[in-house]
Amino acid sequence: MDQLILDALMEAKGADIAFSPGFRWGTTILPGEAITYEQVMNQTAITYPYVVVTEMTGETIKAVLEDVCDNLFNPDPYYQQGGDMVRVGGMRYSCNPGARMGDRIGDMRIGARPVEADKTYRVASWAPVTEGIRDETTLEPIWDLLARYLRDKKIVRPGKLNLPRLVGVKGNRGIA
Fold this sequence. Notes:
By secondary structure, the protein is an alpha/beta fold.
């Protein structure tokens, strides 16, 4: 479902990259099964569901991913804020959970091209927790975007999951 949401965000918003919060609940959708609106809501129903598009530099994208990693992998348990790693569409990258802050995210690529630190990319995401969203009536919730995407597509085929390449985790049964 994460990959489907990411694909819908990138297509609907004309984005190079998409971010989706790293949580899911609900039941598994089996191959050949119709995806119902109830299942869309099972996967997306939160109190801050709004879709946003942001222009971000490659440097900012790396900083966002580093910050999320630090919430999960900081060696000091008092700084581990939990959660799940943000799901990323449109961009491949590597993650070394054991590295220090600033060195965990690497090899960021869109297709075969490296993400450039000073280049600006169009990033679609949902579940913004930033301030500055004042008029929620003008924002689209992710469930509406995803439902429209599914209605337009009619049939979706499982695609290749966009997973980070994990580095330095061999033998760590909790991560690898």
